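Subject: mismatched residue count in predicted assembly?

I count 124 residues in my input, but I want to confirm that the predicted structure covers every chain. Input:
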Amino acid sequence: MASEGAHFYKQVYAVVRRIPRGRVTSYGRIAKMLGRPNAARAVGYALNALGGKREADPPVPWQRVINSQGRISTPNMDGGADLQAALLRAEGVAVSDDLKVDLSVYLWEGLHLIEIDDILSGRA
DNA sequence: TTGTTGACCCAAG
DNA sequence: TCTTGGGCCAACA
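Triage response: the counts match. Full output below for your records.
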């Protein structure tokens, strides 16, 4: 594979970038894709680091990542949660007043670990 | 190396 | 629906 030099962060970002517009997925789901079914916290940590800049280069659609309850867990500070809801709505995702998304409709199943490897190899 | 923290997940009550 | 408690992982001091 493309060397394990790729850190967990990179893998997380790679997967998040593959989330189709108008779809959402959960932290745990991403973690499972990376072969770490219980590393949801680490995923959140990665996105938290990204949140500091709000956008990275290349950009990461972090707004499409929510918790398994279909609820936006982004900190309200800096209007993060509100911004996320707005961005999702702009993509056609229905977000309730409680910042909840119907996963039965918008959930993105995700990729398989083997596909992740392909992406990290640069052949997306 | 240890302890703490975090945009989590799951099961119970 | 909300609150607890336990657990797993990665980054940081």
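Chain A has a mean pLDDT of 86. Marking this ticket as 'not a bug'.
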